[in-house]
Design goal:
The complex is a heterodimer of chains A (141) and B (65). Chain A is mostly helical and 141 residues long. Chain A contains 5 helices and no strands. The chains are: A mainly alpha (141), B mainly alpha (65).
Amino acid sequence: MKKKSGILALAGLGLTALGLWMALSQGEKPGWPPALPYLLLGLGCGVFGHGTGSWISGKILEGDPQIERRARIETADERNQMIGNRAKAKAFDLMLYLFAGVLLVFALMGVDTVAVLLLTGAYLVCLGWGLYWRFRYEKEM
Amino acid sequence: MKNRLEELRRQRGIRQEELAEALEVSRQTIGSLENGRYNPSILLAFRIARYFGMPIEEIFLYEEE
């Protein structure tokens, strides 16, 4: 687990460095899509943060079964899980209104149709995913 | 829903941390249960009842609203 986290952190660092180098050396006509360096930077930072976080927590928990047990209990704790799920549900409710508003503003601003359609598609996929899970839970419970 | 968790815990001289450890929940969950801010799942209610060796209805007091 620790080894995997370390590899992930290093891969993230590599991606970030590559993205940074591409962004800095990007001339008028780069040999790659202009958004690629920033995509790599974002992805690299995310992977690096996730990997480093896992590695540090693995290092802290290492050799201390008591703390490891406490961490496992805190994660599995039903109240903690309920709080997390409720917070996520609230954020999702907000996201529905916020994204719909942003999409409307984008459409009124005359932002590129492809971009607006892509965002609308992503928005609808999220709504569809919510419906899918609703029906699945209806069947299962 | 009211409960007698704090009363039973004090009777037995157990700390919140110890009860949380035995029930495999966080100490905050025990605190919230005792304050009546959180109602446990039926599984946790059974675990609590089993821990104290009492029926659920003697620990958790259901009141019609």
